[in-house]
Amino acid sequence: MKIEAAKPAISPTVPPPRAIMRVSLPRDAFSIVSIIETTVSMFFEISPAGSIIKAGTVCDELVCQSDLMATCADMINDTIPDSAGEDSITMMPLFKEQKNSYRDSIIHHSLKGKFAIRDKQWKLLLCPGSGGWAMEDSVAYNKGLPMVQLYDMQQDVGEMNNLCKKHPEIVRSMIKDLEQIIDNGRSTLGVKQLNDVPIDIWKLDSIPGIDRTIIDDY
Question: CA 145 from chain center: how many Å?
């Protein structure tokens, strides 16, 4: 997601708010269950009226809706316990235009339980299709499409050129990162947490007749 501070339009009869946050969701309810970029990447706008954010500020850091929890706590000078908001990172440093590092990655999860993980350059989908209804994974598999999809999000935001065969080392590294985050029960620093249920990152049962050895290379 992208944070963008727009110039506010405030009525002179209404006291200016501290900040107004608005997240624009995709309109296509059919595809929002998927993990393709057009359904997981959203426009995040903040009105800076009376706040610390300068009008017209644009930030290209990775942020997630889960970050709202830690951000709201930070706004009131509070903290959240280790057992809550395990994937939430405060966005306040970004609002203040501080240059310290932010999150390294974001994990996406489709309605059907398919995983994707992305960083500032790469996005890896652990499914041959969309992970949802846009293109059923069983259909994609039967068409002979690879079990994973790797895209360079700096060059290919439309996810048209699957680079999984060209960069198998990146695929393996990102899968390892995903497995480590799942094992920790969190993507942030803090005490290791237990997952509510056992996590299967592949969910091969969703593809009838699949050769289960197909993931051995990953």
Answer: 23
pTM (two decimals): 0.82
Return the structure tokens found at 37: 């970029």
How far apart are alpha carbons 212 and 45 in whole angstroms? 43
Nearest C-alpha neighbor of 108 from the set 179, 35, 37, 39: 35
* Domain ranges for the chain: 2-215
When computed from its CA atoms, the radius of gyration of the chain, rounded to whole angstroms, is: 19
User: Which tokens hold the place of 51?
Assistant: 């706040």
SS (H, E, C) 106-159: EEEECCCCCEEEECCCEEEECCCCCCCCCCCHHHHHHCCCCCCEEEECCCCCCC
> How far, in Å, CA of 184 to CA of 178, rounded?
10
148, 136 contact by CB (below 8 A): no
Q: What is the pLDDT of residues 52-109, one digit of tens each?
A: 777 777 888 888 889 999 999 998 999 999 999 999 999 888 888 776 657 889 999 8
